[in-house]
What does this fold into?
Amino acid sequence: MLLLNLIILPIVAVQKLKDKFEAEVAELAAPVDDPVYVDLAGKYMGAILYDNETRATWKLYRVTSIQFIRSYSSQRPSCWEATCEPVYRDAKTGHFVVPDDQRVADSKVLKTTALQGYALAEYREGLDQPPTQLPWLQQYIDHFRCVVMPRYPSLFAPEDCPSFTGTDKEAHTSRRRKRPAQSSTSCSRSRKN
It folds into this structure.
């Protein structure tokens, strides 16, 4: 019995140390979201925008991801970028969906040429300073909300477009937060008369 205890006791002690070590490693390796990413994702993830300044034929997009782009060039600063997929509003369901011709044949994968990137914030003063917010994506979102939606109310009424208000549970629920509806005062300020 004493011999058995001398063998089992060290095995149990070693296993406890292994478990403790694994727990510490897991805690240290747990990802922590960058506060800039959390802020940008909360503002933009899932947002619908209308790029009224592009020459491209497709102008309606949805923000699907936000990523940090590290630059090693002194000519171009590192930045946060939103990747957007082309969408249209399906009249039957009211959802914004990606056109089939923008996908790889017999797949749900989007063609790389279909995606559009928009810079959200740049680190002009270096990575140790807060990033400079860039206005373009917000301007395109405001243009959709304040110009396109009112111009075509039968197509884009907010109550018929759950994706617009951020309450659509089927599209991008796990990747975005609910946003409050755009106030009418910001629409009147952003319109060009």
Remarks:
- The helical segments are 2-29, 35-44, 136-151, 153-156, 162-165, 184-190.
- Strands lie at 48-50, 60-69, 79-86, 88-89, 96-97, 116-122, 132-133.
